Amino acid sequence: MTTHEAFSVCVQTEPFDLGREYNQFLVGDRSAGAVASFVGRVRETNDNQNIKQLELEHYPGMTEKVMHEVLIDAQGRWPLLGVRVIHRVGALSPGDNIVLVLTSSAHRHAALDACAFIMDHLKTRATFWKKEQTPEGQRWVKGRDSDQEAQARWHAKD
Amino acid sequence: MKIRILYFGELREQVGVHEESVDLAAATRTVSDLIVELTARGSVWASALQTDPLRIAVNQEMASLEAVLSPNCEVALFRPVTGG
Domain B2-78 classified CATH 3.40.50.300? Predict the structure, then answer.
């Protein structure tokens, strides 16, 4: 088994396997009492339209940089032992996985909260754009106010 | 001053360009000036760049319209992000 980095981000076209990533994430680890995972997937409907395919575009360089910044922000808030983030790009179909976040800590609250924090910040800061193919044609997904609010709640006391 | 400009997502499709090198007009100092210069290219550019919301990154950091450009900087123009 190759050595694994405790904190890592990755943008890739290939599918990922949650079980495999989980095992690799924890190789040699005996201190993490809690691991939280989140997987974001392509839904078959969005805004009352059937989704045939989703195309994900990103800004190579800036995306990875922002993902690292989000990790560092999370590390500043919780005593994390590891974080693994994978975000896919390219052509995806309903049911396909888009994004994976794994967080580990000694105790559950840090792992769970950091996982949610990372997702909320990826949604609003990481430079990805989704384009949907529907039976009526193509459309670019619009940013949602609810995503901005989800991010803002982490900073309410700042 | 020469800079590199990148366009992503919907905006890239609207202007029909992904990446270009531009030798800026002497009066173009800020991101806001750059938008004015690009807008002057024609109707497609004007409608794409004057439609909100527009987001800007300079050297891979989010930037405001007031941000000052520097030689060889990388400016990216896009709509709000929708990943995750």
Answer: no
CATH class of A7-150: alpha beta
Q: What residues does each domain of chain B span?
A: 2-78
Q: What's the ipTM?
A: 0.96
For residue A46, the distance in angstroms to the closest alpha carbon of chain B comes to 13
Establish if B83 touches chain A: CB-CB under 8 angstroms. yes
pTM: 0.95
Q: Which of B8, B80, B84 lies closest to A99 in CB terms?
A: B84
Angle at which helices A145-152 and A108-125 cross, to 10°: 140
Q: Do A143 and B79 touch (CB under 8 A)?
A: yes
Neighbours of B1 (CB within 10 A): 14
Residue numbers in B near A99 (CB within 8 A): 83-84
For B8-49, the pLDDT digits (tens) are 999 999 999 999 999 999 999 999 999 999 999 999 999 999
pLDDT mean over A43-69 = 96
Name the token pair of A120: 């909320």
